[in-house]
Amino acid sequence: MIKKVLAGLAIAAAALFVAPAAAQAYIPTGDITGPATVGAGGSGTFSFNGYDPNEQVSFTLTGENGAGASLGSVVAAVSSANIVKGTDGSGAVSVTVTLPSNATGAYTLTGTGLSSGAIGSIVFSAGSSTGGSSSGGSTGGLPNTGATIPTLGLWAGGGLLALGAAFVIVLTIVRRQKASH
Do 133 and 42 touch, CB atoms closer than 8 A? Predict the structure, then answer.
């Protein structure tokens, strides 16, 4: 009987520590500003802050027809573009996005701090005008407050692995009790 209670407490303790850890995996950055719309073939500058001072930040742009998009001076050859830039002494960094002339739909620009793990993301849309430059102070929608899909998969897989281990332990205890009686 005591072994069953201990096994139940072990499972409860594991669940108590695994669930909050998944919720704390996402570390958002501070403010993100940039245009809500960037014209097809045009450029827009986005400012991210809330990273560590002098930290390297990896930026990724994804979206429809992203093969021709560029971040700073990096031109993408696939449906997303990547660039790494350093923050200033206050943890702020800016990146200029130039969309291809055939850009349509929504684009997501994500900045991930390489040492802090802080993540910031902004969604903007491609306008129908060509050329020119866009600027503004809109954040482009609701803030990203959840974990990314790969992170969620890792936490779910780890949780299932912990539950499987707890199940095997409980079955072993039950078999030993039946064999001893």
Answer: yes
Instruction: Return the sign of the alpha-carbon dihedral for residues 170, 176, 178, 181.
Output: negative
Q: Which residues are CB-neighbours of 22 under 8 A, at least 6 positions away? A: 147, 152, 155, 159
Name which of 93, 89, 126, 140 is nearest 112 in CA terms. 93
SS3 117: coil
**How buried is 173 (Cβ within 10 angstroms: 0-12 exposed, 13-18 middle, 19+ buried)?**
middle
| pLDDT, averaged in runs of 10, over the chain (181 residues) | 74 64 52 84 88 90 68 49 85 88 84 87 76 39 57 80 92 90 75
Q: Do residues 46 and 109 make contact, with C-beta atoms less than 8 angstroms apart?
A: yes
pTM of the predicted protein model: 0.54
Please say whether the beta carbons of 66 and 76 come within 8 A: yes
Question: How many other C-beta atoms are found inside a 10 Å radius of the C-beta of residue 118?
Answer: 21
127 SS3 class: strand
